[in-house]
Amino acid sequence: SAVISQKPSRDICQRGTSLTIQCQVDSQVTMMFWYRQQPGQSLTLIATANQGSEATYESGFVIDKFPISRPNLTFSTLTVSNMSPEDSSIYLCSVEAAMNTEAFFGQGTRLTVV
Amino acid sequence: AQRVTQPEKLLSVFKGAPVELKCNYSYSGSPELFWYVQYSRQRLQLLLRHISRESIKGFTADLNKGETSFHLKKPFAQEEDSAMYYCALKDSNYQLIWGAGTKLIIKP
Description:
The structure holds two protein chains of two kinds. Chain A contains no helices and eleven strands. By secondary structure, chain A is an all-beta fold. The chains are: A mainly beta, B mainly beta.
């Protein structure tokens, strides 16, 4: 199993500012993902965080808006840039120890943009 | 197109009654399917996966390729089963495709 520490758990931010969310895993993992979960909706994959290289973004998400870092196999950050109220959501970090194994999730970051 | 459909946003049953949460999928290859659960104030976690063919907390799910379904079942619901349930499919890129989720409420 993998234990994920995701910070902050929640934040209220002013529009136009940026927030960086951290995801720390207690063991080395192959796959790290960032999701967005808007109220009452399912999980939408933002990107796959790749160790030592640029993240792979899904359709509708771009690096300028959601820059991601993954300096090693246990840590990643997601930045939500130039925030607007539409960015208010829960952001989730997810990891898999290897391909085709169980996914583990962080507790989530509840972001409110005012 | 790859898709996972959970037709019920909300399902409410009495304690002791049978439960069935529906999941249908659309996928061109050989699917790997999962049920994840999120209890109140807890993180999302795996409940079961079809390749394990096991029963977790009394829940089972059988992959029916003919009907492209992976419904989650439990013969006798318990109050602690109240949670949000998500069906998910892993695609050929090892990414999870998620259903919209079903909120299960077990009434005492």
